[in-house]
Design goal:
The chain is an alpha/beta fold. 32% of the residues lie in helices and 23% in strands. A hairpin with a 3-residue loop joins strand 2 and strand 3. The chain is globular.
Length: 270
């Protein structure tokens, strides 16, 4: 599903994302001799919410799962001779991963130290920032304006977005929703005044509601997204190699441009 890039949307998002892909983090060192380069057709279970565009969602016409996660995992498995089996899950996925109930999850997950105690990460595939997504009729030009008002923030419990919202307005002014689309509807309805969200995820909603939603002020920068695995997973090394190969040969940028409207590699590598 190729999306048309609205000029005004491109300007808004490029301001927020301009500093988000300036460097590609150094890959985690690993012994190439330990890599499995051919999984022999093994099935790999991949957790997806199907409610977090542009990473994973259901096509409204076909009901099939689409998004960045689907394209990336299929390409990784094409290179490693495995078969991705997409399993719909609820957020948060960390306990399921720690218990080994899934092989991997994409879902635009931010690298955080506390999470690394229960799951293993892939090498990062993009650097990004968080923003406050707001209605186009909002009256808050800065984070300070927003914080000094009684404005409410939509978010999802257990996310880094909720943590950013807590730092800005405190717990009493946050409304957590089970799924991001429900929070977006609350924002559109005026129940909330902003949504703390990853800039790369805000793209899909601003495209869907270009006259109603806009990218507001920045909340954070320098955040890193990665895939996650159960501790000690044999997928980590081979998947890291596949991700780096995809970054090097342009495949990852093609997928990122399709869904995130930005490159995932550094500008120096383009």
């Amino acid at each position: 599903m190729k999306r048309a890039i609205l000029p005004s949307l491109f300007i808004i998002i490029s301001i927020v994302l301009g500093a988000c892909s300036t460097t590609t983090p150094t890959p985690v060192a690993a012994d190439p001799m330990e890599f499995i380069t051919d999984f022999g057709g093994r099935e790999i279970t991949v957790g997806v919410e199907n409610t977090y565009p542009p990473f994973n969602m259901l096509d409204p016409d076909t009901g099939e799962g689409i998004g960045w996660d689907y394209d990336v995992y299929r390409e990784i498995c094409r290179r490693l001779n495995c078969v991705p089996v997409f399993v719909e899950i609820m957020w948060p996925p960390f306990e399921m991963m720690a218990a080994g109930e899934l092989d991997t999850v994409g879902d635009g997950i931010t690298i955080k130290l506390n999470r690394s105690q229960v799951v293993d990460y892939s090498d990062p595939y993009i650097e990004y920032g968080m923003i406050m997504m707001m209605r186009t009729d909002n009256v808050y030009e800065t984070a300070e304006d927003f914080a000094n008002s009684d404005a409410r923030v939509a978010s999802q419990a257990g996310t880094t977005n909720e943590a950013a919202a807590l730092a800005l307005v405190g717990e009493d002014r946050i409304d957590n929703y089970v799924e991001w689309p429900i929070g977006v509807l609350a924002l559109l309805a005026g129940d909330d005044d902003g949504m703390a969200i990853d800039a790369v995820a805000a793209v899909a909603y601003i495209q869907e509601y270009p006259d109603e939603l806009m990218a507001g002020f920045a909340l954070t920068s320098g955040e890193l997204l990665a895939l996650i695995y159960p501790p000690g997973s044999p997928l980590q090394g081979p998947f890291n190699k596949a991700i780096q190969d995809m970054l090097n040969d342009g495949t990852m940028d093609a997928i990122c441009q399709e869904w995130l409207l930005t490159n995932c590699s550094s500008e120096e590598e383009l």
